[in-house]
Amino acid sequence: MKVKYFLSFFPIIIYSITFAYARDVEIGFWTKNDPIDYRNGSIKMAVMILNEELKIEGADVQVVAKIRSWDGGKAWSNLKQAYSLAMEAGTGPTIILSGHEDIAVWGNSGLIQPIDELLDLDTWPMSNIVESLWGPMSWNGKIWAVPQDAEARLLFFWNKHLAKIGYSESDLEALPDKIASGSYTLYDVLKDAQKMQDQGVVQKGFGFYPRPKKGGDYWQFYRAFDGDMQDSATGKLVLDKQALLAYYQFFHDAVYKYEVTSKNHIGTSWSNWHAAVTSGKAGIWHGGTWQRAEWVDMIGFHSFNENVGFGLMPAGKSGFKPTTLTHPLAYMISRNNDELSQLAARIIAIATEPRINSLHAIKSSHLGITKVQDAQEFYKNNQWPSDTSSLLENAFSLPNNTSFGQYDIAVWNGLTAVWSGRLTPQESVDYITKELNATMGGKVIIK
Amino acid sequence: MEKHNSNRISTIILFVLSLPLFILYFFFFLDVFTVPSTDSIWPESFTLVHWRFLTETLSGKPSIWITTLNTLIFSGCVVAIVLVLSSTAGYALSRLKMPYRSQLLGTLLLLHSFPSVSLLIAIFIILQMIGLYDSLVGVIIIKASLELPFGIWIMKGFYDTVPWEIEMSGVQDGASRFTVWYKLILPQIYPGLAALSIFSFISSWGEYVLPFVLAPSAEQQTLSVYLAGLLSETTAVDYGLLKAVGLFYMLPVMIFYIFTHEKLMNIYGGGGGSKG
Amino acid sequence: MKRIPLAYWFLLPAAVSIILFYVLPVILTFVFSFTSMASDTGIYGNHYVYSKNAIRALEKSTLNRDIFKKIIERKYVFDSESLKIISQSKIEKKTQTEIEETLPGTVYSTEKALFEALDKLKNKPRSFRDKKIISRATIRSLNGEEFIEISEMRVAFEKLQIEVGEEDFDLITEVTNTSWHWTTKNYREVFSNPDSWRIFKNTGLYVTLTLGLFNVGCALIIALLTFYMSLGQSKFFRSLWLIPRISPSVLYVLLWRDLMDHSGFISYVMGYFGVAPTNWMGEFPWVTIIVINGFVGASMGMIIFSSAMQAIPKSLLYAASVDGAYMWQQIRRIILPQIRWPILFIASYQTLSLLTSFEYIQLSTDGGPARDTEVWALHAFHTALSNYWGNLRYGFGATLSVVLVVIGIIASITYLKLFKFQVLLQEPPIEN
Amino acid sequence: MKIILKKFSKNFGQVEVIKDMDLEIESGEMVALLGPSGCGKTTTLFAICGIHNITSGQILFGDRVINNVPTQERNVGVVFQNYALYPHLTIYENIAFPLRIRKMEKSEIDQLVQEYSEMVGISNLLSRRPMHLSGGQQQRVALVRALIRKPNVLLMDEPLANLDAALRLRMRSEIRRIQQETGITAILVTHDQVEAMSMSDRIAIMNDGKIQQISTPTEMYSDPKNTFVAGFIGNPPISFYNGVLQKNYFVGTAMKFELSEATLSNGIQEEQKLEIGVRPEYVHPNFGDEVEGKILFIEPQGRETLYDIELDDGQVIRSIQMGSQQYQMGERIQWGMDHKNILVFDENGENIFSKLYGTSPKL
């Protein structure tokens, strides 16, 4: 019932009722539709507060939020494509909440404006945002956006299955730390997954059950082998052939050597994937912190805490460091007239208030973005996972670069070629190198 | 005897060939009215819960009825425009003397080789220039224009089969070419108009990319966009609901088909320009 | 007075719509294929930004060092001009007065220093916005600036008393311009990318197999089989085969997915043969895309062939059965020769349709795994309109379309030759 | 109304279909355009009614040049080979269509339709649709529809071609009757000589886009202008035989006879190549003995019997004789020709008399 209540809270277009005497200003807000998050709700709330502020200030303006959520099987792509075109046509929203990687693209084309021109980032609550989150908000010498949420991506394992292959209670408890220290590596994952399969705990192909679709998560495996993605001096993309080879080799080993992941795993539907990981059909898998909210709230997997353990994404092999990817969403303000931009900036500042941010963080199992949230009872009591700081310490984020998409697709295609057995890891690396040289020329430093 | 046997054999062959369709749509109808089971392909119980979208507005969605009305307006207008413009242009190309006639016809056929989706950016720019971006009107015009080459060829094919003497006789009787077309020729190609209206109705009723890209506002949603929006990138999808909406979506086309399918089989009367 | 012939009136509305909304986009697409247009360059107009990257590029360029230094030098100056702008702004009067009294002549090298100075005022600016107004009024630099028009940039150069020669100015505009430019790189990229050839081969395979097995092959079989059936039966089967066409693509592919998934009917049946449940779609991606497209594509051919067969004079068939021809002989000797034109028509029309279609592939395998089932049209769509990380390469997408169009045109011309196109077009006998 | 074609030419692209054609049709006259298919007769018809534009020359209705008058205003009634009835309209609506186009009063239309449909006996069919009518009935409807608006001229394009033999015979006289009753100028296009001869006042015979001869049916038969006309008219057809003039004699490889004074006086030269034409009824045992050969083929036709005689040089002369068969196949015979009725053509196929006296005697 609680879910249903919240569902009714998110109509696609909300025309707030405002006061007849004030001039209404429409502020469009677009993001991806998700019934279990609190993004639209935060904006609605922020607009309510802003309107009260405006009344008290005696301004003759009231804001009407025009909220549009994008959905569908490719909701993010849809949102980005629609925003790009709508902005060109002048019908785009004032505020867009999307992945931080869009900053480079939209900043370059002038669709969005630098946020540091509109907001004093040294004031509350921006001043309290975790420093590491400002990195992904910056591009080309400017800060373009305010982070909306943060998360980490984790390795999950089904405790009972590990117990069956010989993990004692204390081993299980120590596992996250072993991962964090780098002594439990990705290859240990494969070995444990193989044991589970050999002992019939899980079916063949379900030992290690990675994300079934393309996504930023896979860069964790490249980073796990110490791969660099961006040259800090020039901002150019980097491709480390050695790390790439190790990354491809790992999945090749998972599929063909240890046989803990099936050859046609990529393309499994999300519903099947969710069903497998919440039912114990899968032994070890990886996902995002926010997925816990989906499992518990939407699929009804209430025994999550008893059954599932988790840790950072392990290091590739000993000597390397564990990783986790954080992919903060970013509030961006479209290039617009001054009045709209100023109002939009105020809305964003209010929505960033820790109390409002906590609603989203807790509801959707994301991490809070400000430091004070740890001190807030509602957040502290409900936060999952409880140890946020260690996660964000190890977190990396994707580079903001206009060519990232092209680079990402090439590397992904290389992985799937290895996965399906069409190419060996080495062949695939050679192929990708050749392709990137041909298509992106000097935009990628290949080393 | 012989005939009876071969008839049975063809029925069996056809049945086997159609088996995937039987299975696909059998489970489709099953899923629409039942609660699925988690561990079996057979459902648990009968339910109408998937049809709740008819009476209540789903969260984050416009009302299904408004969307349906939108889609009807969209498809109806596209069909109307395609019928009117193809029947005039088809007539001109089939019957009226004009320079570059064969070049025009060849060009029309070639246009079919342009992937409409990759023209989207250019179409977007044009719509934006004439102020029709993000409006249903704009999408209607675009969809109709993209359907036109096919429509004109079909209509030309039908006109080609009308005896010239009818036309000559009408002219002799003192009617203008327009009157001849309107009063004498058009009634001869009703089967063509019917066939074309089915094709363009099916095509526009199912159109997804154009309204989605060119009229993204929620107010302009058509059923195809509504339906696609029920899918989700990562979170679990209510497939029962999605399939029920899908069935709801198919109903008008099915009804349209029942009333017109006899005409569809006449399409070769016109031959779509494929007379041998 | 010369009357405008009816033909033109009749053609005009269709011609206008086709030219405006079909031919013009085609031409524009061709034009775009020679640009670097993408969502990171924008579609319209120019945009000149002195961003970090641009300045880095200028530093490495042949630009006169003095000019470069002047460009990157950043200072905030309270001179008469900046005071004038401040006095015209909405900043509170007392703040304005204080600035006019205390600050003239001061220069700050960073915005931070400026803001600190402003904060020290007794009547300090009330809001960040006011500070920003002052910052905008006093800044004397190009570093970080943006311009929409070149003329604005020239004005800025004059204001800063930077004298640049035309050559340097061109260099600067080129480096700072973030909008698209003309290029043939797209075409070079298409031909140098090793994946292009693979996708090209995929496309050929996809079109040939789908066309041969379903759009013509299966369509012909259904049309022939239903031809010999009772009316009721044939109606039933034809209607059944039309259902995929009228099913929304999202739903239709979903039904296939259900059928072929781990927990689907195929896995269920194969379970009886001891085969572990698997994702059959992932196992046989090629079978998947051909079958999914084929079951939709067969209906068009089925309709055309069926109606063409019905148009065969019955006397021919009677004559044949009097001659003692069996069904198969009837089909081979009478029906097939009689419907060879419709077959050719369907083959040509559907070749073009298949070349440009991608929706079902996108919804089922999305070109995967590893672009194994990526076809050209889908590749163009992915490039130009659907990229997970946002940068939509309109120009390159247009190039891919142009390549597809060229293939399509070659195919159509071949087919038109086969059709003896000109024979189809006798001149109208009514000459006025 | 008098119809005049002056130096009328028609090209289709590069192809010259009609060359400098002159034709005058008197008011109330019925002229048949007769010729093999592709000779340009339908093109001429379409030019008169305005479906085709003319390349050069003039067409006059009375004394009005109508070259540039649109079809709709020429007021020409046309009956097409397939009748071109409007399938979606009833017979009444079909007949009334030209009147409605002219925005005639409804009562007037009713009256006219009634009157005209009675004239051809189809007044009981008015509510039916064309597809429910027999060929003959459709033909009448087409005729009435063409006539009801009182056209300047009635054009008929092979009007009887789609009817069976008996009906064709009846419609011939019917059409002729109606034409004479209404006194309308009419042009009949046909490839059937019997139809042309029985229905029309005069026949214009066409070949290769040219009028070969225009005259009354009788004249056309007895005095054809050239071998084409002679060969085209007459059933069973005329026989031709080649030879040269040698001392007043026509000499072929297997036949020789003396030519009449009248023929010789037309200035033929010694050793000139000639071709004679003789109609079958003028070859008979009673006429002489110059036709010597054996009977190649016999075709009994009931009232008459047709014999093909192969001369010794292989050329064939045809004979038709009243009564039943009296000779046997292969029998050697020696028959003669009626010298008064032998047509003599020069090497260009021109009739030697006609060439001397000008064209058809009537003109």
Written account of the structure:
The complex is a heterotetramer of chains A (447), B (276), C (432) and D (363). Chain B folds into two domains: 2-47, no CATH class; 59-273, MetI-like fold (Orthogonal Bundle). In chain B, strands 1-2 form a two-stranded antiparallel ribbon. Chain B is globular, with a radius of gyration of 23 Å. Helix content of chain B is 68%, strand content 1%. Chain B contains twelve helices and two strands, in the order αββααααααααααα. Chain B has 276 residues and is mainly α. The longest helix of chain C is centred in the middle third of the chain and has 34 residues, at 194-227. In chain D, the strands form four sheets. Chain D has a six-stranded mixed beta sheet with strand order 6-7-8-3-9-10, sandwiched between helices. Chain D has a five-stranded antiparallel beta sheet with strand order 13-12-11-14-20. In chain D, strands 15-19-16-17-18 form a five-stranded antiparallel beta sheet, with no helix packed on it. In chain D, helix 3 (91-101) crosses helix 4, helix 3 packs parallel to helix 5 (135-147) and helix 4 (106-120) crosses helix 5 (135-147). At the B-C interface, helix 1, helix 2, helix 3, helix 4 and helix 5 of B face helix 1, helix 11, helix 12, helix 13 and helix 16 of C.
Global Rg of chain A? 23 Å
Give the number of DSSP strands of chain B.
2
Distance between the termini of chain A: 55 Å
Give the name of the CATH superfamily of the largest domain in chain B: MetI-like
How large a portion of the residues of chain B is in β-strands, by DSSP E?
under 5%
Please give the domain count of chain B. 2
- What would you call the structural class of chain B? mainly alpha
The profile of the biggest β sheet of chain A is: 6 strands, mixed
Notable traits:
heterotetramer; B: 276 residues; mainly alpha; 2 domains; 12 helices; 2 strands; 68% helix; globular; disordered C terminus; C: 432 residues; MetI-like fold; 3 domains; two-stranded antiparallel ribbon; elongated
Write the layout of secondary structure elements.
The complex is a heterotetramer of chains A (447), B (276), C (432) and D (363).
Chain A: H1 2-7, E1 23-32, H2 39-57, E2 61-70, H3 75-89, E3 95-99, H4 102-109, E4 112-113, E5 138-139, E6 142-143, E7 146-147, E8 153-158, H5 159-164, H6 169-181, H7 186-198, E9 208-209, H8 219-224, E10 237-239, H9 241-257, H10 270-278, E11 284-288, H11 291-299, H12 304-307, E12 308-311, E13 324-325, E14 329-334, H13 338-351, H14 354-363, H15 377-382, H16 388-394, E15 395-396, H17 404-419, H18 425-440, E16 444-446
Helix pairs in contact in A: 2-13, 2-14, 9-17, 9-18, 17-18
Chain B: H1 2-33, E1 34-35, E2 45-46, H2 64-95, H3 101-111, H4 120-129, H5 136-161, H6 164-172, H7 177-185, H8 190-205, H9 209-214, H10 223-228, H11 239-264, H12 267-270
Antiparallel strand pairs in B: 1-2
Helix pairs in contact in B: 1-11, 2-5, 2-8, 3-5, 5-8, 6-7, 8-11
Chain C: H1 6-32, E1 48-49, H2 52-60, H3 65-72, E2 76-77, H4 80-88, H5 93-102, E3 107-108, H6 111-119, H7 128-138, E4 146-147, H8 150-159, H9 166-176, H10 185-192, H11 194-227, H12 231-246, H13 249-260, H14 265-271, H15 280-283, H16 285-310, H17 314-322, H18 327-338, H19 340-356, H20 359-364, H21 376-384, H22 394-419, H23 421-424
Antiparallel strand pairs in C: 1-4, 2-3
Helix pairs in contact in C: 1-22, 2-9, 4-7, 11-12, 11-16, 11-19, 12-16, 16-19, 17-18, 19-22, 21-22
